[in-house]
Amino acid sequence: MTTTNTDTKVGSGYLESLQKPANKNSGSTGQAGSALGKDAFLQLLVTQMKNQNPLDPQDNGEFVAQLAQFSSLEGIQSLKESVDGILTGVGSSQALQATSLVGRSVIVATDKSVVDTTKSFNGQVVVPSNISEGKVTIKNKDGNVVKTIDLGAQKAGTADFIWDGTNEKGEKVDPGTYTFSAETTVDGKAKTLSTLLPAKVNSVSFQNGSEMMLDLAGIGKVGISKVTTIGI
């Protein structure tokens, strides 16, 4: 079986935007939340002015400093409201983008995939460094080995492999969910390699401040961060 070697695919700007959830729990907003409210600040300032000693009134410089502090407080609260508005908009944009993923295929870091054995299946193996040999083992839902694909020597990057949907005897096997495991030998010891496989997006779920989750056919829920390519 012929294999080719390609560089690791990086998600597009669209994918990266989905992989960065909007988070309203930033440090700056947390500091603003703990500050004295402007109404309480004004009430405290007025009370202080009413109760000051008329024979020894408050120094003008000190009063100006307090007004400056109030102005700063107003600015912080205004900034917090602006940031919250921006984050809300970002979250809404991500939600809109996420709906477009439903029904599409993605390449994801996983060891399982739903395979239509009536046509060729394309997968990838992550190769962290140059290897002299490697192989991909395919098992059915019962854990029985269906086929082994030889990768041969590969350079660092991602090695593509193709399965024609047949077993070792050349017979077509039934469509369904199959498990793929890849390994190589380093210094006489077996080393497991990660696989990147296609999957169809059934649905998308997300919560503010947490990673978007994709429900993938035959796999289940997977974080968007594990997706390397969208729209194949």
Automatic annotation (TrEMBL):
Ligase found in the keyword field: no
Keyword vocabulary terms for this entry: Bacterial flagellum biogenesis, Cell projection, Cilium, Flagellum
All copies of domain FlgD Tudor-like, residue ranges: 93-228
FlgD/Vpr Ig-like domain segment(s): 115-185
Biased composition (Polar residues): 20-32
Pfam families, A to Z: FlgD (PF03963), FlgD_ig (PF13860), FLgD_tudor (PF13861)
Region annotation Disordered: where it falls in the sequence: 1-32
Highest taxon, organism lineage: Bacteria
Database matches in InterPro entries: FlgD, FlgD/Vpr_Ig-like, FLgD_Tudor
GO process annotations (BP): bacterial-type flagellum organization
NCBIfam families tied to this protein: PRK06655.1-1
Family to which the UniProt record says this protein belongs: Belongs to the FlgD family.
Primary role: Required for flagellar hook formation. May act as a scaffolding protein.
Protein's recorded name: Basal-body rod modification protein FlgD
Organism expressing this protein natively: Pseudomonas mosselii
